[in-house]
From TrEMBL:
One of its GO terms (biological process) is defense response. It comes from the Eukaryota. PROSITE patterns: C2 (PS50004). Residues 1-96 form the C2 domain. Pfam families: C2. This is C2 domain-containing protein. PANTHER family: INGRESSION PROTEIN FIC1, PROTEIN SRC2 HOMOLOG. It comes from Pinus taeda (Loblolly pine). InterPro entries: C2_dom, C2_domain_sf, C2_SRC2/BAP.
Length: 138
């Protein structure tokens, strides 16, 4: 992520992300200790979703970014990308045809104001086009 709102007043933010398609099945990154307002996770997340959910044109991957705290973690912002946008142009008959590799998504603060960008990398293998049981994000 880049240029996030600094929700810490005194110390540097230590951010982590929670991603999901189905709110009952969430995946979390590790805490980035050093990135501050520009955290880097470089971590693969596998998100569970069934065929019915993935076939919905409004199905979206939601990524909530939090600032870690000893008392209570604070929501920095949220980014959403529609699943059909990730599958756009892919040919289900050809599992290696997935033109989307990297997508930059606007991060919105809890107030709704835009602040920051989340870069999502989707492996170009397109394997999830066949199984449609999970999507991998790095």
């Amino acid at each position: 992520a880049e240029d996030l709102k600094n929700v810490k007043r005194i110390r540097k933010m230590k951010c982590y992300a929670v991603a999901y398609i189905d709110p009952d099945h969430k995946a979390s990154t590790r805490i980035d200790q050093d990135g501050g307002i520009n955290p880097n996770w470089h971590q693969k997340l596998v998100l569970a979703a069934d065929d019915e959910l993935l076939s919905n044109v409004l199905a979206a991957i939601t990524v909530d970014i939090y600032s870690y705290s000893h008392i209570r973690d604070k929501l920095v912002g949220t980014a959403r990308i529609l699943v059909p946008d990730l599958l756009k142009g892919g040919d289900p008959a050809n599992p290696f045809d997935n033109p989307i590799q990297c997508s930059a998504v606007q991060v919105r603060r809890p107030s709704g104001r835009p602040q920051g960008i989340l870069n999502i990398w989707v492996p170009p293998t397109g394997r999830f086009l066949l199984h449609r049981a999970s999507l991998s994000l790095t």
